[in-house]
């Protein structure tokens, strides 16, 4: 929603300011369709040429995803922390082998079934169960486990940011495509010099300059902010993975479950972080 509000503000302020300054909006309106075809078509073609089907699909899904709220809210993080706490408590009381059945078949696990949000998130669920498998059968020390998890999270980071990165590249190229459209317009103008009156030449030059204007406006006022918002959303969606890593590593290092969960809680931003007392009350109910 805030993305739409911001883009509307950009549009209104730019064109409203131009109109208040005495500019003729019809000059821009008449030239805009052709210039948009050149600039938008070139940008779209370059985007398709530079990216594979997977990134293209994720890009359009990511843009539409900005119209929705964040994937995880404060209540969802409480649910995730409670799940981790319950697993770690079971390990502490009964040993690592006690969670093997839960890890191998989480859909039928009595523990995982209490937390439908996590159970429905297949990427996060796979990450949790893979980490627990390493703890159960890997016989790894904390440093080795941390290196493995860091490598997996780095791969996940690159994958989730591929769409926003591709959109940012398009945004960076739009001003140049605007110049291309303007140059083509000047080429057209030069062919009329000496054959058309000055007022016609002036209108044609103005139309050519609209290409430069639109390229810069689209790049910095619309596409660039969308790319930034997509990157921020990808970071937010990756936060649950960081919480899982921190909590499980703390457990492997020998910290008791409440301390491991507190380490994970500290990773959340202030607007999403549950209070210590509130979370402690929730964890008591999970014991």
Main beta sheet: none
Number of strands: 0
Helix content: over 70%
- How many angstroms separate the termini? 39 Å
The number of distinct helices, counting runs of at least 4 residues, comes to 12
Class based on secondary structure composition and strand pairing? mainly alpha
Radius of gyration: 27 Å
Low-confidence stretches: none
- Series of H and E elements: HHHHHHHHHHHH
**Shape category:** elongated
Question: How many distinct folded domains?
Answer: 1
Strand % is under 5%
Give an overview of the whole structure.
- With about 290 residues, the protein is mainly alpha-helical.
- The protein has one domain.
- About 80% of the residues lie in helices and about 0% in strands.
- The protein has 12 helices and no strands.
- Helix 1 packs antiparallel against helix 10, helix 2 packs across helix 10 and helix 3 packs across helix 9.
- The chain is elongated and about 90 Å long.
- The two termini are about 40 Å apart.
- About 25% of the residues are buried.
- The model has no long low-confidence stretch (mean pLDDT about 90).
């Amino acid at each position: 929603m805030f993305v739409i509000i911001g883009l509307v503000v950009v549009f209104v302020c730019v064109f409203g300011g131009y109109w208040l300054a005495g500019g003729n909006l019809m000059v821009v309106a008449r030239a805009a369709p052709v210039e948009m075809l050149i600039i938008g078509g070139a940008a779209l073609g370059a985007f398709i040429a530079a990216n594979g089907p997977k990134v293209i699909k994720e890009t359009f899904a990511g843009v539409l995803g900005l119209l929705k709220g964040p994937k995880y809210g404060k209540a969802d993080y409480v649910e995730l922390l409670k799940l981790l706490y319950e697993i770690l408590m079971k390990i502490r009381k009964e040993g690592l082998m006690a969670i093997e059945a839960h890890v191998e078949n989480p859909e039928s696990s009595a523990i995982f079934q209490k937390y439908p949000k996590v159970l429905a998130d297949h990427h996060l669920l796979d990450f949790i169960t893979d980490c627990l498998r390493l703890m159960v059968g890997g016989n790894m020390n904390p440093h080795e486990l941390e290196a493995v998890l860091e490598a997996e999270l780095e791969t996940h980071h690159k994958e989730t940011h591929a769409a926003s990165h591709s959109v940012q590249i398009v945004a960076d190229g739009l001003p140049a495509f605007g110049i291309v459209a303007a140059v083509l317009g000047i080429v057209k103008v030069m062919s009329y010099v000496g054959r058309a009156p000055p007022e016609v030449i002036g209108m044609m030059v103005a139309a050519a300059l609209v290409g430069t204007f639109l390229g810069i406006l689209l790049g910095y006022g619309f596409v660039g902010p969308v790319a930034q918002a997509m990157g921020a959303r990808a970071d937010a969606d990756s936060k649950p993975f960081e919480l899982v890593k921190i909590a499980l590593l703390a457990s492997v290092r020998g910290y008791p479950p409440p301390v491991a969960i507190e380490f994970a809680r500290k990773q959340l931003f202030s607007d999403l972080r549950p209070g210590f007392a509130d979370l402690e009350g929730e964890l008591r109910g999970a014991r």
